[in-house]
Design brief:
Helix content is 47%, strand content 19%. It is α+β, with helices and mostly antiparallel strands. The protein has two domains: 3-65, no CATH class; 71-181. A hairpin with a 4-residue loop joins β1 (101-105) and β2 (110-114). It is elongated and about 60 Å long. The termini are far apart.
């Protein structure tokens, strides 16, 4: 069976196009491959192959073409929305470092770049925690600023945030140092 045949079969069974499924998944806050497949199988009685075909279209098109705001909304979907105001405020402060700051969310976290050089990331890790990764080799770790270790090899340090008030002047200072070093 061709890929298009899978999509045609899904349409004949459900009267829904991939765009219809994308809208429904967005409303439910579903973004991950496994949860999308499970939803399509349970709610629409699709087989595994047919569900995977729809998910392939959804994830491929979203990850390549989604505007920054849509990608950010996806990262803050569902219960993780509690972190959105604090993280957006932090991103706005980081943009104040210079005109060359680029905010580039992906499916997992928010990349923060100076031009094309990544100097930090923000990951909404759990409902209870946001991790701020900072790329700054010259900085010694502290009780709050720990070495990133295997958490993320793109950055050198990590700050675990369990309360939005912890996105404070110290975090902004570390981010500013990382921005200055990313030339």
């Amino acid at each position: 069976m061709s890929f298009q045949a899978y999509l045609d079969t899904v349409y004949s069974k459900t009267a829904k196009t991939p765009a219809d499924f994308a809208l429904l998944a967005q409303r439910k806050g579903l973004t991950k491959h496994g949860e999308l497949v499970a939803w399509l199988k349970s709610d629409f009685a699709l087989g595994h192959g047919h569900a995977n075909a729809i998910v392939a279209v959804l994830l491929k098109s979203e990850s390549r073409a989604a505007p920054t705001d849509d990608k950010l909304a996806k990262l803050f979907a569902g219960k993780k929305a509690i972190w959105q105001p604090a993280c957006v405020a932090l991103l706005e402060q980081i943009k104040g470092f210079g005109d060359d700051v680029v905010i580039a969310p992906n499916d997992t976290y928010i990349n923060i770049l100076r031009g094309k050089k990544k100097f930090a990331i923000v990951q909404i890790s759990t409902l209870e925690r946001v991790d701020v990764g900072i790329k700054l080799k010259s900085l010694e770790p502290t009780d709050r600023l720990e070495l990133a270790g295997t958490w993320n090899r793109v950055v050198t340090h990590r700050v675990r945030i369990t309360d939005s008030s912890q996105l404070d002047a110290a975090v902004l200072e570390w981010l500013g140092l990382a921005y200055a070093a990313a030339r």
